[in-house]
Structures are given as structure tokens and as C-alpha cells.
Design brief:
The protein is α+β, with helices and mostly antiparallel strands. The chain has one domain (about 5-170): Aminopeptidase, CATH 3.40.630. Helix content is about 35%, strand content about 30%. It has five helices and seven strands, in the order βαααβββαβαββ. Strands 1-2-3-4-5-7-6 form a seven-stranded mixed beta sheet, with helices on both faces. A hairpin with a 2-residue loop joins strand 6 (about 150-160) and strand 7 (about 160-170). Helix 1 packs across helix 3 (about 50-55). The termini are far apart. The model has no long low-confidence stretch (mean pLDDT about 95).
Amino acid sequence: MTPIIWRSANADDAEALAYLGAATFMATFAFDHPGKPLIAHLGQEHSAEYYAAALRDPATDILIGETPLGAPVGYAMITPPSHPTLQQEGDIELKRIYLLGPWQGVGNGKDLLNLVFAVVDQRRAKRLLLSVYEKNVRALGFYERAGFAAIGEAVFMVGPVPFRDLVYASNIG
């Protein structure tokens, strides 16, 4: 397998993140998300403009993984928490973490999660939150093996269509 070179994303990465975000979201969720709302969601939440704004936000960290030839294959986005009823003082959120299929299942996800924990540590957060779609069994197992525990749930909207996410937390340290 081609190795992944991880680094902090910068303003020049917005377009690559948009393609990568759309590709990984579609590959992960097309099995039960209606087509038109899914495509509209990708156009809004995985646009180059969306990632450009996120990259300008000093409260957001984005890690991007590339092949030695510079092709983007994975990323993670760490943000302030977005679960007001579940969050505590000192929380931070893993908003997105994705790898293209061929790079999954060989330790790259664990490597990326370790890099995320390093960012969380640099930010001096006490707890890392994340939301995961209740039907994403592979991701649920990955997070549970990494020490995350469910603390609640949230609704994730794809256009007008609601989906149930489980909110997980991992204590830091």
C-alpha cells in the first residue's frame, strides 16, 4: 500500500479537501441517503468555499494525508464542539475523519486518530467528542476500540432528511 504523508492543511488545500470530502462522504453514506439531498449536501458542506472558510478559522485544525505523489487520500477536521446539551468545559470535537477505501483497514485510521489526539493535546482539551451515524457499524467499532463511549445522540440533517448520529466522547490523558 502506498504510504500516507500527514500534514496540517493550509489555504492551498481547500479544493483537494472538497474533492476528498465529497468522495469519502458519498462512498460512506450513499447506501441509504437519498440522491438529490445527498448531492445538495455535498455541494454545500464539501465545497472548496466551505473548506477555505474552515482553514481560515483559527479554532479549526485540519490534517490532510497524501500519497508521495501528492494525491489526497484522507483527512480529519477538529473544531470547537457543536453539541451544546452534551458538551462540557474543555471539550473539542472531531468533526470529520475520513480515508479513501483502499487506505482503510491497514492502520492508517489509527495513525490519523493518534495525530488528532496530538492536536487535541496541543489545544489542551479535556475531552474529544465526535458524532457517528448509527448505521456506520465499521466506524462505531473503530471508535469503541479506540476508547470512545457513547454519551448521547444528535440529529444530522442531509437537506430535509434527518439521520440519527450517536455522540461519543473520549477523555484525554
